[in-house]
Specification:
single chain; 131 residues; mainly alpha; 2 domains; 5 helices; 63% helix; Probable_transposase_24
């Protein structure tokens, strides 16, 4: 593996892990809201996920209860609704195999895994990976 491949792989892994972790925390908040029957994070103390240490959970719900976080959350919700196209996965419901076949026809050769991955994970016309 070349050094540039290693750096690129690390970047993609980090970006993917960050996104997955973000969704994991979102689901933890959503579940706490449902189980505790309250949208108030200060009432989530006893709703610690089984996979998380209690002291980490306490730190998180204190962050989520802070006014600054609440304001940022509201702003981001408004932004997501206002710009729906920016929040869509580039491959949609088309399978990876279908994308691979289409790219093979376009390139007139079998595409590399990286080429198909980039095609399905980057914003069109840019070199930027989607979240």
């Amino acid at each position: 593996m070349h050094r540039s491949d290693e750096a690129r792989s690390r970047l993609i892994w980090t970006t993917t892990a960050r996104s997955i972790f973000k969704h994991l925390l979102y689901n933890a908040r959503k579940n706490a809201k449902k189980v505790c029957q309250s949208a108030d994070p200060t009432l989530w103390r006893d709703c610690t996920p089984t996979w998380m240490r209690r002291d980490y959970w306490e730190s998180l719900y204190n962050i989520w209860a802070a006014e600054r976080w609440q304001q940022t959350s509201t702003t981001m919700k408004v932004n997501r609704v206002a710009n729906l196209e920016a929040n869509m996965h580039t491959s949609g419901y088309v399978s990876f195999a279908t994308h691979q076949s289409r790219l093979e026809n376009e390139l007139k050769r079998p595409p590399t895994f990286q080429e198909v991955f980039d095609m399905t994970h980057k914003k069109k016309g840019t070199d930027q990976y989607i979240s």
